Fold each of these.
Amino acid sequence: MSSIQPVIMAGGSGSRLWPLSRAEYPKQFLPLLGEDTLLQTTLKRAARVSKQAPIVLCNEVHRFVAAEQIQKVSTHNGLILEPVGRNTAPAIALAALHALSSNADPILLVLAADHHIENSEAFEQAVKRAQGLAQQDKLVTFGIVPTHPETGYGYIQRGSAMGDGFAINTFVEKPELSVAQDYLASGDYWWNSGMFCFKASVYLAELKRLQPEIYAQCEAALANTAKDLDFLRIDQAAFEACPSESIDYAVMEHTPNAAVVPLDAGWSDIGGFSSLWEVLPKNEAGNAKAGPTIEIDTQNSLLYSESRLIAAVGVSDLLVVDTADALLVAAKDNAQAVKQVVAALNDNHRFAALNHRKVARPWGTYDAVDEGEHFKVKRITVKPHAKLSLQMHHHRAEHWVVVSGVARVTNGDEVYLVNKNESTFIPVGQKHSLENPSDEPLELIEVQSGDYLGEDDIVRFDDWYGRSSSD
């Protein structure tokens, strides 16, 4: 039997989980259910069903955080960067073409990086059943056995028995509540999980037959691949020309070789805060809590704090989510509308739609702790032996105060060390860089002053991580 090649889809913005999830640091990179992030949990799940290192696909903007999180728990067999989003059919085609480039034809197990599966053993058994059907050249998806009449998922109607699975009668869009209730009562409909299992060659053959333009553009994009550090950069122009289509619409709804395997394993896509409430542990009052909280006469609510105390009194069925720079309060039964907040933030070009107050960079993090009309204060942490780019700013000066560790500073033509409790000043327009030469983290306070303090006021001259001024 062909070996399993896991494929982890780590794109997406997770807008319905704002303010925890932001466009540049979305939910798959967050530790929502434990110490591991959702991506790391998915990597460990894949490792239980295959010895092959996974192929991971992610958006270019997420490449450094994805690489760092993978490195902590696993290795990979290719970290493919998508320069633009083109939905799941092209993304999986890239993974399939990359898998075939090693002169093998593995069975791809396509998993989303942000799903929760409670019962690992049931998942592993379902994968074995799907693997057997994939070996017979079937394109297999996993149907989640529903627990309630859900209107937020698409459905799959099973057909006649087919080995360890079933043929597929039809795919159904997200239904109205009354229709979802009928589906649940019939027992013939399962939730569409968005997970798949098939041979790389079989998927590509069906994609080429059904969607020749997608196939051609993906083939062209991967034919001109460049290695960049830990990443595989595909041809941007070719991929931008690729039609955007989901695998369901492009292939699964039209192929005669589709099959479905049931999965009853405590699955959730954690698509919103009501889903997060469902999978988190709850107390006798039905409250799911994280961080410092006090509840009095409060029921069936989610209280989630990153640092500040949340006190809830006399409320029920409420979502309260507090981060360093944003507070969300919403009715639990209206959790899907959170994405409208993100749309409003984007319309007004608000930073909170893109990132948290504490921002991850390949060299470490910065936290904008205070700002006014002509000043901004950041707490900067630089990883051991990491270095910020050689850069300059047209509109701002910077004053650095080291509070922990030692900094090697490039300031114009000078290079010198700045130790704990020492400081240095970078004038406007001066080329400068900051490096941590030690084995311990470097922490410093940066005070910016000037007429414009935006993050786009950076001109990079040299960067260890291959970033441009706009990156």
Note: The chain has eleven helices and 30 strands.
Amino acid sequence: MKKTIDAASHIPDFWAELPRPFFVLAPMANVTDSVFRKLIAKYGKPDVMWTEFVSADGLASPEGRKRLLPDLAFGESERPIVAQLFTGHPEAMKQAAELVRKLGFDGLDINMGCPDRAVMKQGGGASLIRNPDLAIKVIEAAREGAGPLPVSVKARIGFNKIDLEWIRTLLAVKLPALSVHLRTCKELSAVPAHWELIPDIVKLRDEASPQTLIIGNGDIETPAQAAEFARKFGCDGIMIGRGIFGKPWLFENLAKLRKKGENPVATAVYAAPLKTPRQKLDVLVEHAKLFERTFKGLKSFDVMKKHFKAYVSGWDGAKELRAALMTARDAGEVKKIIERG
């Protein structure tokens, strides 16, 4: 047991070692799986990666754990890598956190913002906004199970309305990092994210828990926009979600700037590199082959179709090619359709 724990804590507090501001990849179900993250790490790694969110309740049962373990697979190139879990049951969180520690993750994050009804029905995700006492118990259970791993939280700014007291409640437990999706649960993604609230949240942080890093999330599509918002609103980190679709190279220039020791916020060239249609299609084929090799018998190849839509756009004939790709049943067919043009 000790050997496993030591392996998991090879970065005692990676949050404290990050540059400011830092840029991270959002956890997205059936998007940021181990295959897509492997490509992102290859073509342009952000400062931190998250897994897809995974049910702690499922991981706490032998049968569920066997089914869900592929969602917690990761490679060394993805570090620092944070496992994200959801549940409304402290004991399940404790058991799942123990597993996360044994698997060698760099951190554990608790999803307290997902508005999906199935997730909330289980007492997880955004439902915890309405039950802050239970939210704290879940955090405490995660810490007990995770041992030396830092436990962070991703949350929204309220349930039916903006509620900064909820944010204050989370800050009171001295988290190493708090990612804030700047919409309420009720708002979903139907309104612009309330980035104007970040200065107020930072002020609350300074009063209650100065060591907690504030990560802003919502509506950020490009690295250039991320750098602008970090500079304008003063958060410690920026989380990008939808902007990564079809662009595993989104953080390529960030990785280059980090290697040179330059500040991306002060560097005008911090933007996603442009790729030709041929380059995009080559990566799409690589993605499809890796997905099939990794998840055959575990996930439907249809999961790849949301990626087809993202990779294949922005040039004449893209619409027709997308339509053809939607009929593909495996990576071999993807390659043949693309070669036919």
Note: Confidence is low (pLDDT under 50) at residues 1-11.
